[in-house]
Specification:
This protein is 63% helix and 0% strand. With 68 residues, it is mainly alpha-helical.
């Protein structure tokens, strides 16, 4: 049984991975201000999306960019 359904194509997952790499270290670079922490949280969400291939917002709206 497959619990996580992939709803993103590979190009979109790659873009999310690259963006997350830039957002995750924000608190270390810009100190611990609220904006940097929010950037890091968004980077973590994008990293989860990149590795799992599932976007919660896509699932909520019924969108699917994966050809499978």
């Amino acid at each position: 049984m497959k619990f996580i359904v992939t709803n993103q194509n590979k190009a979109e997952r790659l873009v999310r991975l690259i963006v997350s790499i830039f957002l995750l270290p924000a608190p270390f670079i810009y100190q611990n201000n609220p904006f940097a922490i929010i950037q890091s949280i968004i980077g973590g969400i994008l990293l989860f999306n990149a590795f799992s291939g599932m976007c919660i917002i896509y699932r909520f709206f019924g969108a699917n960019t994966c050809k499978v």
